[in-house]
Amino acid sequence: MLVDSHCHLDLLEREQMPIDEVVEEASAAGVDHMLCVSVSIERFGPMMRLIEPHAQISASVGVHPDGTDVHEPNEDELVALAGMDRVVAIGETGLDYYRVEGDTGWQRERFRRHIRAARACGKPLIVHTRQAKADTLRLLREEGAAEAGGVLHCFTEDWDMARQAMDLGFYISFSGIVTFRNATDLKDVARRMPADRLLVETDSPYLAPVPRRGKINRPAWVRHVAGHLAELRGESLESVAAVTTENFYTLFSCARRGRSAATTPM
Questions:
Q1: CB 129 within 8 A of CB 152
Q2: What domains are defined for the chain?
Q3: pLDDT at 264
């Protein structure tokens, strides 16, 4: 049994991959649950309608740090939307200095609002961080993010950042990037991770893992991520699947435990 802790099923639909087929494929691969992550308020409503028929899919609400020319929700709006059935987290949110030039103050203000909303509603944060280590950690501390907890998703940073995030009560999630041959430093972080803070994800439709690299990613392929982590850590796929699944439901405590793949053999 596996969980894809971060995917964008609404974006897969835009790639002509119907959600019914995606869910069926995931179930056949032993993926019991998926967390469909919001990137904007404009897309949130259609995303919720898309996943509604599928009990094994949870959702988040938030605005991606790269998003421009999008609606900027205030804290009250985020809290209200987070109260909807199936919404288990705030995000994705965070800081991304890789794609943004010039003043990034608006990213930090957006991030602060999301952290405050997570604290207010008592749901964890899904944090995106890229080339923004110092500011990400600083804002998490300044805004009391430890009170909400959360995950640094699609982790690509160093062990020091992982350690500091875990000190704040955060989990670390690995995507297909960890399977890439040149991801040497990231593989080392994966080896050093305590089992009780480990999550796996696809971030589909992006970042397909080896041996599917270059293709449109999908939740079924989280199995490749978990399998690679098992090899790195000298553990079995079954043990990595079990611990990352339990970690998911511990962090996202409002998520319904999936049904479709519960008896699928690993």
A1: yes
A2: 2-251 (3.20.20.140)
A3: 38
Spatial contact of 193 and 203, defined as CB atoms under 8 Å apart:
no
Task: DSSP for the chain, please give it.
Answer: -EEEEEE-HHHHHHTT--HHHHHHHHHHTTEEEEEEPP--HHHHHHHHHHHTT-TTEEEEE---TT--SS----HHHHHHHHTSTTEEEEEEEEEE-SS--S--HHHHHHHHHHHHHHHHHT--EEEEEES-HHHHHHHHHHTTGGGT-EEE-S--S-HHHHHHHHHTTEEEEE-GGGGSTT-HHHHHHHHHS-GGGEEE---TTS-PPTTSTTSPP-GGGHHHHHHHHHHHHT--HHHHHHHHHHHHHHHSTTSPPP-TTTT---
pTM over 0.70: yes
Average pLDDT, the chain: 95
